[in-house]
Amino acid sequence: ITVVTWNVGTAMPPNDVTSLLHLNTGETNDVDMIAIGLQEVNSKINKRLKDALFTDQWSELFMDVLSPFHFILVSTVRMQGVILLVFAKYYHLPFLQDIQTDCTRTGLGGYWGNKGGVSVRLSIFGHMVCFLNCHLPAHLEKAEQRKEDFATILHMQQFEGPVANGILDHDLVFWFGDLNFRIESLDICFVKYAIDSNVLSQLWEKDQLNIAKSTWPVLRGFQEGPLNFPPTFKFDVGTNKYDSSAKKRKPAWTDRILWKIKPPSKGWGAGGHRPSQGVLSVSQLCYCSHMEYTVSDHKPVAAIFAVQFASKVDKPQVEIYVADEWSRPEQAVVRYKMAVGFHRSSWDWIGLYRVGFRHPKDYVSYVWARSDDGERCLEKQLCAQVIFSEEALPKGNGEYILGYYSNTSSSIAGVTEPFQISLPRSEEGSSSTDSSGSSSEEDDSTLVLLAPKSRSPSPGKMKRHRSRSPSLAKFQGLILRPSSRDRGTSRSPSPQSRHSLPRNIPTIHLPQEELRHHGVKGKELGQAAESLEGSSFYQTVQEQGGLRRVSADSPLARADPRNLGLLPALRLEMIDQALGQRRGSVDQGYYPCWKMSPTSPPGCGTSPKEGRNP
């Protein structure tokens, strides 16, 4: 497990982070998980609005860099400028379960999130592990405040489930971040002399965190490797020189990585048996700073750990069986077997991923995990079969992976080994596919949005689209429509075919008075929204002769599979004359309602069960 912490000082990401993640060494082949904790990511109001619509630039960077090494984003959590990202190799995903996140604000008495902690907890091969990224109060004299804030974070963060409800209840805890502990007593001249002379051990005993580990009960059991690297704060930005400003801050090891193993239970366990000793062991293989990064006044710190479990759960909850190669569409048959006790959902799906995918929603296509041929039990396990339609399959040659996504646990419960897809590419399909692929990264008009409350980054290729974020509320004369090249290749989990969407999807209509209220002139009233074809945050439905707007948070909106995952790529376009064509039918009190999938609004003449069939 590799752990990285970096206070980025609101800077833009550098072009290369391979050395920070130790990707240019042989150690990468042995690393199974990477946890990255960032502090002071730019969180000004305009930047936060952008990041609410698009994945933040730092997360994009790490996903882009790690995906070629088969690392997948397992979970992420953000609290203003504090971000935590957890990655793992794709073949470990079925054994990473019970994933939960939490955050605690401690700034301004708990009302502001510039300081505090964010955490990701999960079960790794049956053992509970928690990653905690903190940004504690600054300045030499705030040591007691740091102690109180850390105790608050430990007390406030609680998780659901029968085991490991608190942070310290986990079998293994990694605590890292800009902890802001300073060097006491010694003056700046002596500190710099010790650094230049490489006698760092003379500074260790005056380090506040080293002192606190032996005196603060809340830190009992936390371990840290030797500080054999220079203090990581404070540098002149763009250089490797310590602070030369008028303040002349004293260098300090503010950026730290610690770990704690839960002590074995005492006494007798259930059944009169003594609990096993030494459930896991941790060895630190590397603990270093990276002086080559100069975009911030902090230097990043990385640590590599070897974690050994006494036992592990190594059987996935879902086993997927597939042919070694799909050379014909009729070979796209997927058989899967679910373990006893697996909590399936009608919203589970099986995704087809290209090798090198970035996160669980980054699929090429999918099918709902509902068998068309019925289900049967084999050795007390539920077996089923699904088929990918021909239009859902990628054309050409490539390596792919199938993954069973559990909606209940919001994680992948089973994956296959890579297999080959070799399907002929028609001339028409080839030209359209090539143009789509080439323009997906070049067209600056394609904007990828996140679904409300979605923690997963948007699917699709968003390289170099990280900072665009128009303020949607101000564009009263604009509507959102799918890019023409994106129609037919939507990655949103919708059971409809991958051809262009029907044009008769319910539309948001603004009354004439509301349009005038927003400054729309009379000439522009004839140029209104044709439809919100790709997806919308609201849906308009017919109810008792009137129009009702349904929020995306309502059960009706959530029933749309497009709200289960991520919205398709959208384009901002000027309003055309479509509303003028439809306004007549609306003025007559009639609003057409068509069959929608997977569930239809009331009054559409389709039962929820019928509507759920793809």
UniProtKB/TrEMBL annotation:
Gene field: Inpp5j
Descriptive protein name: Phosphatidylinositol 4,5-bisphosphate 5-phosphatase A
Organism whose genome encodes this protein: Myiagra hebetior
Subcellular location: Cytoplasm
Residue spans of biased composition, Polar residues class: 490-499
Residue ranges of domain Inositol polyphosphate-related phosphatase in the record: 1-314
Catalytic activity from the UniProt record: 1D-myo-inositol 1,3,4,5-tetrakisphosphate + H2O = 1D-myo-inositol 1,3,4-trisphosphate + phosphate; a 1,2-diacyl-sn-glycero-3-phospho-(1D-myo-inositol-4,5-bisphosphate) + H2O = a 1,2-diacyl-sn-glycero-3-phospho-(1D-myo-inositol 4-phosphate) + phosphate; 1D-myo-inositol 1,4,5-trisphosphate + H2O = 1D-myo-inositol 1,4-bisphosphate + phosphate
Database matches in PANTHER family: INOSITOL 5-PHOSPHATASE, PHOSPHATIDYLINOSITOL 4,5-BISPHOSPHATE 5-PHOSPHATASE A
CDD domains xrefs: INPP5c_INPP5J-like
The family this protein is said to belong to: Belongs to the inositol 1,4,5-trisphosphate 5-phosphatase type II family.
Keywords, comma-separated and alphabetical: Cytoplasm, Hydrolase, Methylation, Phosphoprotein, Repeat, SH3-binding
Gene Ontology process terms (BP): phosphatidylinositol dephosphorylation
